[in-house]
Specification:
Structural class: alpha+beta
CATH superfamily of the largest domain: Glutaredoxin
CATH architecture of the largest domain: 3-Layer(aba) Sandwich
Shape: globular
Strand content: 15-25%
Oligomer: single chain
CATH topology of the largest domain: Glutaredoxin
Distance between the termini: 105 Å
Helix content: 25-40%
Largest sheet: 5 strands, antiparallel
Order of helices and strands: HHEEEEEHEEHEHHHHHEEH
Number of domains: 2
Radius of gyration: 29 Å
Number of strands: 10
């Protein structure tokens, strides 16, 4: 004890003081999923996205799906044009979030999709009030869509005329297909001019897909008009003025909200199925859904009133 006191005293004589204990490092502020940069960094690491994949994050909105949480939509874009849109459910304090689908056992498991699918004033065939509603998002320049179109028109329409109601929606993949958006606009123009002629257009443009290019699509549209009894002058004006492009844009926005990133994408009573299906598989799914709806009645075609589109002169 005396030795320790002597050493301390000696140190004081020479102007020295005992070393202070190191200060504890300042605690970093907690991250929050409401901070877009923090959320992006976390998701990028979680999903192993390369730096070349860009992200756009929407503002948080109170969730209608999960009480007490906020919906935050994240939109990913790859250099090749591929996209991924996902929603994460962020807690009120921002410390945690949930990925995945929320289910209510009293509703269809595909209720969230059904709420986002709008079929009023859309091209369709089949029986209104049918137990199975099939909504297809498609691209007129897509080769897989061409093959699926044949199945819809040659198999579904004939096998289930009163059991399946098919609706068509545009989802042109412009990054991959250079004339798909023009074809989508033209299809809407035909539908506005004469709704019944839309399916003539649908069949014709897929049949002619290999003969159409960006350099000749307008001439081809006039050929269609001549062959199918459509007013070619009105069709040309409609396409040139992009009178229906806003409708196509709405279809694309709806598709993105439904997290579509490939064509064709089906919704069978709300069940999402990406890419084409062989007829045998599709036939099985339709039969299963008909049987399910006979008991559940949770997703049948409830829309029986058809509003005709406004004619664009």
């Amino acid at each position: 004890m005396k030795t320790a006191i002597c050493i301390l005293a000696a140190g004081m004589m020479f102007g020295q003081t005992p070393a202070a204990s190191p200060a504890a490092p300042a605690k970093a502020p907690e991250k929050t999923a409401f901070d877009k940069a923090s959320l992006e960094l976390y998701l990028r690491h979680l999903e192993l996205f390369m730096p070349t994949v860009t992200a756009k994050i929407d503002d948080a909105k109170p969730s209608k799906t999960l009480a007490g949480f906020f919906d935050v939509w994240v939109h990913w874009l790859a250099p090749n044009g591929a996209t991924k849109d996902e929603v994460v459910y962020v807690s009120k304090d921002g410390k945690s979030f949930i990925q995945g689908t929320v289910y209510d056992v009293n509703k269809s498991p595909f209720e969230s999709n059904l709420e986002k699918l709008h079929t009023n004033s859309q091209p369709s065939f089949g029986q209104a009030g049918a137990p199975v509603v099939m909504v297809i998002f498609s691209d007129f320049q897509c080769p897989v869509c061409k093959e699926e179109a044949k199945i819809l028109r040659e198999n579904v329409a004939k096998a289930y005329p009163d059991k399946v109601h098919v609706y068509f929606k545009d989802f042109p993949l412009e990054q991959l297909h250079n004339w798909a958006r023009i074809a989508a606009d033209a299809g809407r123009c035909v539908f506005q001019q004469n709704p019944q002629k839309f399916w003539d257009y649908f069949d014709w443009i897929y049949d002619q897909q290999n003969n159409i290019g960006l350099d000749n699509i307008n001439d081809k549209l006039q050929l269609f008009a001549t062959e199918k009894g459509v007013d070619g002058m009105q069709l040309g004006k409609c396409v040139e003025s992009k009178a229906t492009d806003g409708e196509v844009a709405k279809e694309i926005a709806e598709g993105k909200e439904l997290q579509i990133d490939a064509t064709p994408t089906f919704f069978i009573n709300g069940r999402k199925i990406a890419n084409g299906l062989p007829w045998a598989t599709l036939d099985t799914l339709i039969k299963m859904e008909i049987d399910h709806q006979a008991v559940a009645h949770d997703a049948a075609d409830k829309c029986c009133e058809v509003s005709m589109p406004k004619i664009v002169k």
